[in-house]
């Protein structure tokens, strides 16, 4: 039997939910979340930024905001499942010591093992750059362009044991234009992600989204 989704606790502006943001790359969506959180009192705040590499550009956004921001590469001395589990246990230690309550995946390019997902199920949120269930996986923009569809978009969803399969919290459409390539399409979709992700995280933390 699959593990149940357990919602985050009820929070308030005085006692906001403690978010951990996980990234792999430039972190432009992390940056828009941090701007959203600093613009007025919120029901959530970012307490740690974690990356799966030491040189992830987005760690700088966390550091600049005074938030502990740590790159945790995969252990070199192992491989396969042993390596994944050892990496997740390093991540889990950081989450515990920062007393994180919700995980926000923001361009985090790793798939968690089932045992990790089960620990956090209902409290891991991801953003994916397509209209799920269409075009899951790591190459959404490329797949959208090869399929020749005229509309794409982005999806915020809870993470379950599958890849990009969890319950959908919000979606927004973005047009595919004549002559688009992966870069132009990614740029147009990201503009929408920068707005949709902070807004949806906010509603989710306030318990306003039913799943
Ligand atoms: C976003 O397009 C997100 O949907 C995908 O990775 C990208 C992250 O962008 N999962 P950035 O690193 O925040 O700029």
Protein model, in words:
Helices cover 36% and strands 20% of the residues. It is built from 6 helices and 7 strands. The protein has a 7-stranded mixed beta sheet, with helices on both faces. Helix 1 (28-39) packs parallel to helix 6. It is globular, with a radius of gyration of 17 Å. The protein binds 5-O-phosphono-beta-D-ribofuranosylamine (GRF). Residues 23, 25-30, 58, 106-107, 127-129, 154, 190, 193 line the site of 5-O-phosphono-beta-D-ribofuranosylamine (GRF).
Number of strands: 7
Q: Using the CA coordinates, give the radius of gyration.
A: 17 Å
Q: What sequence of helices (H) and strands (E) makes up the elements? A: EHEHEHEHEHEEH
Overall geometric form: globular
Q: Major sheet, described briefly?
A: 7 strands, mixed
Fraction of residues in helices?
Answer: 25-40%
User: How do the strands of the widest beta sheet line up side by side?
Assistant: 3-2-1-4-5-6-7
Bound molecules: 5-O-phosphono-beta-D-ribofuranosylamine
Helix count, DSSP H or I runs of 4 or more residues:
6
Note the gap between the termini.
19 Å
* Average of per-residue pLDDT values: 97
- Structural class by helix and strand composition: alpha/beta
Low-confidence parts: none
How much strand content do the residues show? 15-25%
